[in-house]
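Q: Sequence in, structure out?
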Amino acid sequence: MSSPTPGLAALPTQDGVRNALLADAPLMDLIKGVFDWVNEKQPYPYIVIGEAVETPSNAHDRYGSEVLETLHIWDQNRGFATSLTIAARVLQVLDHTPLTIEGHVHRWTRFVSLQTLKDPEPPGDIRHVPMTFRIGTEVAPA
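A: Exactly. Output:
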């Protein structure tokens, strides 16, 4: 068996997160989609896979990464009830749940943070809830 070579985990991790979210019927009943890029006319609510920060997490005999993945929940309501209901479902789908990450072995997923934000521009009915997860991976054996 040959040794695995290092490889970035950010893109396959993003794909694994997106696929897990899209596969969850109760979440998809709450939102209009999960996107990497959004058209301005996209109906609310929806989730955007946002920024990722990847850091190495190698051991003596293997290559690993930790990916800090931020998801953005966007909703058009005057309160946060809908956005936080969506966030609670995202937490159920991702936290401590195995992901399929191409070319990598998923080790763990942990919820890190959530923030509630209001869009100050009129009419003031846009809600934004960024959620961050830390995902540990290792390069899959060759």
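Residues 81-94 form the longest helix (14 residues).
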